[in-house]
Amino acid sequence: MKYSNLGIDIGSSYLKIWHEDSDLRPIYSKIMHHRGSPKELLLKEIDSMKVQDARVCISGNIEGDGIEKWRYDGTLAEVEYLRSNYELRKLLIMGAQNIELIEIDPKGRIVSYQTNPPCASGTGSFLDEQMKRLGLSMEDISSIPIDEDAPLVATRCAVFAKTDLIHLQQEGYSPQAMYNGLCQGMVISGLKSVFGGRIPDGKGILAAGGLLANPHIRHYLSKRMPFITIAENPAFFRSIALARMAKAKNHNGFDGLVQALTSLKPISFEASDAKPLVLEKSSFPAREMRRDRDSLGNEIWHDLSKGEVLDAFLGVDIGSTSTKAVLVDNSNTIRVDIYTKTSGKPIDATRSIFASIKTLSEKLNIKLNITACGTTGSGRKLIGEIIGADAIINEITAHARGALTLDRNVETIFEIGGQDSKFIRLEQGRIVDVNMNYVCAAGTGSFVEEQADILDMRLDDIGQEVMGIRPLANSDRCTVFMGQEVTRQLKAGQSKKRIMAGVLVSIFKNYLNRVVGNKYYNKQKIVFQGATARNKGLVAALEQLTGARVIVSPFCHVMGAFGVALIAGERTKGKTRFNGLDIPEVKIREVNCRACENNCRITIVNFGGKRMSWGYMCGKEPDSTTTKGKEPNPSFEIRNALLRSYQPKDFNNTQVHLKMPALTLYEEYLPFWNTVGKNLGFDVEVIYPSDGEIKKELGNIGTGD
User: Which of 14, 353, 429, 522 could disulfide-link 412, Cβ–Cβ 3.0 to 4.6 Å?
Assistant: First the structure.
């Protein structure tokens, strides 16, 4: 009897089926988005195919016991298919969640394996998410022309891509142009995730995977790697490999497969260690956090009396998602705080906040005298120059100063903003350790807002609604993967409150894993800052995960503005540079710098006869056509010379001679090792390879940017 071969590839997002006869001729092939329900879709397809007498191999994301005898590892099937059918020895797989680079030897043994970090950047899931935002479907792709001059879109994170798309829409770009920009950026991000900064020309590499079913991705991949070979039927590469493996292994027949699939138990979303979200050690100033909205729609709080004379420091924090301002009196007390959305227009947001200050002053007949002004946040340079700030300070310094003013003994600050998050550790009032998230919104406020919208829950109500709720398990890897899990849980009929509780816990798991990492922090007391700290559920999640008492100020959302106002007050001697609360008309435009692969989006501003530009990640000067090199720090040269002075000049005095590579830990401990060696009767020599040798080796092993 001649058996046909059936390969079933159940990916993270798509189900791929490849059915061929005994002579390897295709009978049926199909690719479908399973939307979190692969078992149901597979059973439906099997029923419609009327398959009989087939050898079967299944691989991928399908939960449960009972189908083990049909399972086969998809990667091993691909490796064998590569070895048997191609002379190439490197395989690049670009799928919905993973980008993989596999190298094999002539016998088909894997000699190296690289995969993307736990992030959807450069993957098919990322593109699916952005296409929804652009209002495009899979059917639209074939009619979209290639556009080499498309605007570049941030593709390192889905939430940041969303911000870029909003800005580009406001500039009048079409969905088709933005789609091309996404595809270009995705190809580069995906390749960098496995090749690092040195993307090869593609010689000797075979590319496959579901993402390559997209003609635009294939085009931009071929542009970036001109000698790469793209597999025939690239989206079905794994399912074809599984079908061939079923034939080669004479794998289990079709009988019993439907019954086994039907008997699979549904997926459990329970977290084994999940406890209800409660506050046991921490307090939450809910009443003190209440804010009114003024006639301009801005959140506002004040502690002013009619007719008051107020000399104040003004602090403005211009963030990517929100803009905040405070007025601080001479006793370092916040008298006014105002909060509004930035909405991609920092100048308009600042103008609106200043209008609120003027309206409030007029309403209460306040004689306001601003004696100093400071700016912080991502828009600090732009707004600082326009309004005449006396101090333009980074967010880390500003947040630390604000926290120290309210609590002189603070040691650990967790700050989570709209699109970034920060970890700050202090000792005796000085910053000793910091870290920020790297272009990932999985642990930020933007993601909370996005999921609240999906779950149809009011952002202001979430914190209270999840209290006492036991959270469901969720991924803490990436906003795209977390969002997919939310969709699966909704489809399974889970409670919205339990889903949202799981989202809040996963956000802090991401923060602790990716931002804090293995850094030391005070596990007795943590100061939580940023607008997200106004979410009671997040405070409870933080307490649950760390066991610490969490301190939240009623002014947690404006602590950066508070800190920079205090610094400006200290630095201003005599007359302030502040130009007043009336902001002049400003001409602003954005361009892409193509001096290097960073493709920085540069902001150019013209006002009052001045022209400014910034946004160069490499530090390049505005009028230069090349990237800026880094000036060497003389302190390092002095340190290195001092360390090397401990190295023996004559290595013939002892019989034992120990060599160590000049890695930082070894080199800095050279005086110690040298002393130990002398007392034990051996010499220590530190080997210093050339910069070229180091760069070559790092290029071989590195996968980062």
Answer: 522
Q: Answer yes or no: do 665 and 552 share one domain.
A: no
E strands present in 582-692: 587-592, 601-607, 610-614, 656-661, 682-687
How far is it, in rounded angstroms, from Cα 183 to Cα 217? 6
CATH number at residue 18: 3.30.420.430
Dihedral sign for Cα atoms in the order 486, 488, 493, 494: negative
The string of DSSP codes covering 64-100 is SSS-GGGB--HHHHHHHHHHHH-S--EEEEE-SS-EE
- Look at residue 667 and give its three-state secondary structure: helix
Q: Which residue has the higher pLDDT, 193 or 58?
A: 58
Concatenate the DSSP letters of all residues of 499-524 into one string.
Answer: HHHHHHHHHHHHIIIIIITT----SS
Helical spans, DSSP H, in 135-275 = 158-170, 175-195, 215-224, 237-248, 257-263
153 and 207 belong to one structural domain? yes
CB 472 within 8 A of CB 189: no
Same-domain pairing of 517 and 623: no
Same-domain check for residues 125 and 154: yes
Contact present, 316 and 351 (Cβ < 8 Å): no
pLDDT at 650: 65
Rounded CA-CA distance 160/109 in Å is: 40
279 burial type by CB count under 10 A (0-12 exposed, 13-18 middle, 19+ buried) = middle
For the chain, percent of residues with pLDDT exceeding 70: 82
Query: Which stretches within 598-690 are classed as H helix?
Result: 634-644, 664-668, 670-680
Tokens read off for 188: 């580069």
**Does 274 reside within a domain?**
no
Per the prediction, the chain carries an average pLDDT of 83
DSSP 617: T
Three-state DSSP class for 364? helix
Take residue 667 and report the two structure tokens written for it: 């080199």
Does pLDDT of 691 surpass 50? no
Q: What confidence score (pLDDT) does residue 698 get?
A: 45
In a domain, 283, yes or no: no
What's the CATH number where 147 sits? 3.30.420.40
Q: How many residues does the chain have?
A: 705
- Of the two residues 637 and 230, the one the predictor is more confident about is 230
**Roughly what angle, to the nearest 10 degrees, separates helices 445-454 and 158-170?**
80
Average pLDDT score over residue span 148-165? 70
Q: Are residues 567 and 596 in the same domain?
A: no
Q: Name the residue with higher pLDDT: 291 or 439.
A: 291
d(CA 164, CA 153): 6
| CA distance between the termini of the chain | 54
Residue 70 vs residue 120, higher pLDDT = 70
- Dist CA 689 CA 661 (whole Å): 8
Top mean pLDDT of 81-90, 620-629, 632-641 is at 81-90
Task: Please state the rounded mean pLDDT for residues 230-259.
Answer: 88
Exposed (0-12), middle (13-18) or buried (19+): which is 435, by Cβ within 10 Å? middle
Mean pLDDT for 567-574 is: 90
Residues 474 and 486 in one domain: yes
**Owning domain of residue 681:** 634-701
Hunting for tokens 């903003």 — which residue is that? 417
Both 186 and 306 in a single domain? Answer: no
Residue 534 lies in a domain: yes
Tell whether 596 and 666 lie within a shared domain: no
User: What pLDDT is stored for residue 445 in this prediction?
Assistant: 73
